[in-house]
Every structure is written in structure tokens, then in C-alpha cells.
Amino acid sequence: MNMRTLVQIIPSIPTSDGAGVKLRRSLGSQRGLYVDPFLMLDEFYSDDPNDYIAGFPAHPHRGFETVTYMLDGRMRGFQLWVNLPSREKMNPARYNDIPSARIPRVKLPQGGEVKVIAGTLELDGDATSGPVNTPGAKLSTDPLYLDVRLPAAAEFRAAVAPGYNAFLYTYEGSAHIGPAGATEPLPHRAAGVLSDGDGVRVQAGAEGVHFLLLAAKPLREPVVQYGPFVMNTREEVEQALADYRSGRLAAAA
Q1: Contact assessment for residue 178 and residue 6, using Cβ atoms and an 8 Å cutoff
Q2: Over 89-119, what HEC string results?
Q3: Which of 10, 48, 96, 251 shows the greatest Cβ crowding within 10 Å of its Cβ?
Q4: How sure is the predictor about 135, in pLDDT bands with cuts at 50, 70 and 90?
């Protein structure tokens, strides 16, 4: 495999959204800081209801899809924004609820496991597909979304389609990324953007690591964003605003 290397680190920064929900944002923390087609990644975690009880009041979206991944019920998880190609930006809204029981878990040879949320993981000749973006119903960006847990010093390797953009996000512990003997460290709670290649190798730090691995086919289209509107031109954003103000664009809860 031509192992991908770490080319950029995007630290997550504390912020808030909605009606004051506290979170950490890596992708999307600054304008233009995204990995096509991934526009934003938020991590939220709290035992204090005051950090999230106000929630996210009804608000509009246009031009992208949100993927919310919950780790457990004490308000711990992630929200990912995925851009849509121009031909799909005006598609009707849709909702898909996937219970945890439908997410496959693959045990790893050196300990730990992988949850396959989207795409397909090939390991030792066996292929496991997640409930999102299955081979018979591929999304336009053909995403790969893995949640990986490794014990201390363990190694994980996975194939990633060449030409697809990819990044990792470490939400517990830290890791080293790249081919053996030429790794780069990825610290705790940071997104690591990867170079091109057909595979990725991750080695857990001394405390072990939990991380997300995301990859997808880039759209290579202009991105014009104003809040929750992500279009290709300024005129399209202005039309989205006009549609919302006139009631022609339904709010999303």
C-alpha cells in the first residue's frame, strides 16, 4: 500500500452553537478550513445539562447534509457537515435514523475494534459494509466513516480509495500516522488531514486511542457559505435567504 501521510493538523477549538450548546470544532472553525466534501466537524460531550439543554432551535439548511453520530446518551458525539454536489443541493430534505445495533463492529488482531458507519472496511480478506452508503445504494461522495478503538501501541491499517480526500479525528488519546519509520504525531482532539494514497496506517500512543477516519470523493465545486446555506454562487445563497424569509424554505429541527 502507498500509505498516506499527515499533511495538516487542525486543532479543535471550544465554541458554542444553537442556543448555547458547548462543543469543540475542528473542520469549519475558520472560513475555508474544510476537507472537500467535509465542511465541518463538531465534537460535543458533557455531563452537565446546562451545556446542552437549550439545544438547537428550528433552523434552515440548504446545500449540504448533516450526519450526527452519538457515542452514548450523556450528550456525547459528533456532527459532520457533508457538502452536496450542485445537482443535489435542491433535493427535498430526508431523515435516516440508524440505531447502534445496525452498526457492524469488527474486532482487530492487535485488540480494539472498528465500528463501520459508512463505506466498506476490508480486513484479512473480509469486507464489512456500514448501514450508510452500502454498495447497492451509494451516495454521490461515496463516504467512508469508521470509528476505531486501539489499545496502547497497537496498529491499524485500512484501504482508502486513491484520489479521495481523508482525515482523522482523535477524540481520546493520541496517535502516530504514516508508514512505519516515518510517522507523524496527531495529538488529542485534533483533525489530521491526510495526503493522497491508497491506504492509511495508524499507531496508537501510550494511552491508546479512539479516532474517526473519514474519506470521500471530493466534489471540486465552488463553495459559497452563509451560515446554514452552502451553495455554489452568491446568487444561490441570496435566493436561499429569500426563500427562507418568504416561507418557501421549511426550517429544519
Answers
A1: yes
A2: CCCCCCCCCCCHHHCCEEECCCCCEEEEEEC
A3: 10
A4: low
